[in-house]
Amino acid sequence: MTPLNGTTAVITGAGRGLGAALAITLADAGAQVILCARSEQALAQVAAIIAKRTGQTAGQVIVDLADNTSIKQAVANITAKYQHIDLLINNGAMWLEASDAPHSEDEIFGTINAAVTGSYLMTQSLLPLLKNSKRPDIVTIGSISGLPNAPLHSVSVPFYAAKHAQAALASGLQQILRDTPIRSLCVHPPYLDDVSPEDAAWEQVSERQKGEQATNRDICEAVLFAITRPRHITLSSIVVDSDSGGLFG
Ligand SMILES: NC(=O)c1ccc[n+]([C@@H]2O[C@H](COP(=O)([O-])OP(=O)(O)OC[C@H]3O[C@@H](n4cnc5c(N)ncnc54)[C@H](OP(=O)(O)O)[C@@H]3O)[C@@H](O)[C@H]2O)c1
Predict the structure, then answer these.
(1) What domain range includes position 40?
(2) In this structure, is residue 3 part of a structural domain?
(3) What is the mean pLDDT of the chain?
(4) Which tens digit of pLDDT belongs to each residue from 195-245?
(5) Most buried among 81, 109, 125, 145, using CB within 10 Å?
(6) Pocket test for ligand 1, best of 10, 89, 95 (most atoms within 8 A of CB)
(7) Ligand 1: which residue has its CA nearest to atom 7?
């Protein structure tokens, strides 16, 4: 099935993990993908997988979401090559675990700037290309840590704050884009097993039982489902909780 034939999708943090799985899934579904990441080598590896599976040449754009100059260059590169984009997935965000020792300044700036400032700058700068699309969507990858009153568990306060802010960005965008065709939605994953569509484990995900950890595949399927809904509705907030008592269990 190729429900995304003819569409173009930008994915940040696409060099590994969930971002790479999303890019491969979207390419399998027919989208032309533009992979954004900090590492040229990681981009090339994901592009090679996509070429092998679909025959497409994926776009590759270097971007450090914590660096304004890098974002400007990345947006200029995308704008120079593409007239429209149909989907922007704000997936890139720095993970920062809780620690008894103080976090370094770089960790704090990196965590908040990449997820919040960088994702918003990227989104704002790509709005003109999204406005040229007939089916534009912005998908923010949040976290169950970003839900109201979520417990911290093993998450640092800067990461917790960044994920709450990302949920607010998605909601704020939905409000300011109300009178446009652009939908904004946020998917909140729980802790994930990092499986790739290239792994045998990808096929086995559908056999998992209640209480087992969620995976990248579960999030890719939620995103694909949300963006292929008829355009009169927006699945504005999707919480994917692996059911071992849920987030608050
Ligand atoms: N995995 C989970 O359990 C889980 C749970 C809830 C939410 N999430 C969210 O899902 C998304 C992907 O998570 P993941 O587990 O695949 O990755 P991750 O291990 O959390 O790594 C972060 C991702 O963001 C990118 N990134 C980090 N800092 C960046 C920066 N300054 N500029 C550009 N890209 C940057 C990384 O790309 P590089 O290759 O450039 O480092 C990587 O793709 C994130 O938003 C994460 O918060 C993940």
Answers:
(1) 8-239
(2) no
(3) 96
(4) 999 999 999 999 999 889 999 999 999 999 999 999 999 999 999 987 666
(5) 145
(6) 95
(7) 143
Q: Domain count of the chain?
A: 1
Inform me whether the pLDDT recorded for 9 exceeds 80. Answer: yes
Distance 232 CA to ligand 1 centre (A): 31
d(CA 107, CA 103): 6
Cα dist from 116 to 75, 95, 137, whole Å: 17, 13, 18
Residue 247 lies in a domain: no
Give the domain CATH number at 191.
Answer: 3.40.50.720
Residue nearest to ligand 1 atom 1, measured at CA:
192
State the CB neighbour count (10 A cutoff) for residue 100. 4
Q: Any residues with CB less than 8 A from the CB of 213 and at least 6 apart, and which?
A: 190, 191, 192, 193, 242
Q: Is residue 235 part of a domain?
A: yes
> Under a CB-based contact definition with an 8 Å cutoff, are residues 33 and 82 in contact?
no
pLDDT digits (tens, 9 = 90+) for 159-169: 999 999 999 99
- Residue 208 is assigned to a structural domain of this protein: yes
> How many other CB atoms sit within 10 Å of the CB of residue 167?
19
